[in-house]
User: What shape does this take?
Amino acid sequence: MEKSEAKMLEEKLTNNKKSGWETTTDEDKKLIFKFSDEYIEFLNKSKTEREFVNSAKEVLDRNGFKNIESVNSISAGDKVYYSNRGKSMYIAVIGNKKLEEGLNLVGAHIDSPRLDLKPNPLYEDTEFAYFNTHYYGGIKKYQWTAIPLAIHGVIVKTNGEKVIVNIGEKEEDPIFTITDLLPHLAREQLQKKLDDGVNGEDLNLLIGNMPYGGDDVKEKVKLNVLKILNEKYGIDEKDFLSSELELVPAFNAKSLGFDKSMVAGYGHDDKVCAYASLRAILEAKVQDKTAICILSDKEEVGSMGNTGMESEVFDNFVAELLNKSGENRPNLLNKVFCNSSMLSADVGVIYDPIYGSVSDRTNCAYSAYGISFDKYTGSRGKAGGSDANAEFIAKLRGILEKNDIQYQIAELGRVDVGGGGTIAYILANKGVEVIDCGVPVLSMHSPYEVASKYDIYSAYRTYKVFYEEV
Assistant: This one.
């Protein structure tokens, strides 16, 4: 049956979007599933920012990257990285052009919403031992009760010894949990607003119930926990004062659905984009411009601190590249940034039909429709966000279409419903051309987020061509 003139005109002029799975070959599906399997394996051993940096360093060292502090000079083709206190990282592949002609940056963050232990966390109440917590980032507090939790992090003793903690992940490990009120006695709780159903001060981790000692000991269960920790890690209670211990879900990421088309796991925000950008720079070919992968910390709490993007540590890394490449005249750093382009690699929001009222269906991302660009973030009247220039978006569209990479452009949600931000504005304030560009997810900021395998692979392909062709 021949198409009508109107039908042909419709196909030519309208933006007809459809699932990427519909045009994916069997061979491409194998690549997509293989990439996602590798991501799942990486994610399951990299649930915290420190663990992600450690895993990334192992991969970089195996692939010929060198710590920039170990080299005296750099030139085209060199591959270097810098670890910022083991919690953020910058990775560079040096291009053929001078650095002052600009950089191709992909910036993701590797911290995720979680629960942190307070500085003095351990206490006993009615013969239960608990850790007191302080939540990190934007969470729905009720989602963190009655699920298995693991403890990850470091304890640093006054002599400088660093104790690595990871308990709750192995089959033989115990797990921990935060109890919730049984529905039979929750009448008052259930009358509260959802946000008030669980108080932040009540997110206390249950860690023990067995006493140690006789009647001369006041808190026997607490003492038994301290005894176990001392035997296992050689620490006492005061050592918690110099620790960074995080609670993360104890369940692993896995394929989701009968068709295994999605990945469910903790920390997609934003480790899915971080992993895709890391893989992309590992495999990027040396091109004209220097490519840099940014793995930042503290984005979930405003990017503050010396491991967040608001610090000047990244500027110092670029300045070090300039010095070791022989380009070091005054004010050159500013020129480098003004000539640079960046993808702020952060997750977006998938349209969820169960909660469709919060989205504008014509301006939202859909699962398996490709990587999602957010032209602007912020809230209400775009307050607090970065708004990408049309010329930059057009350039990116051309590159992706040339490479047959499916993409979509979306907003976070309906106007006045909410809002959010990324690290995009920080680099934009330096003069960099930047747009948010990442994998859209379901259940963002929950203990178990969902992403399409098609979109994950699309992100990897997008970041790779961006490193090589912008």
In short: Residues 17-112+266-469 form a domain with the Aminopeptidase fold (CATH 3.40.630.10).
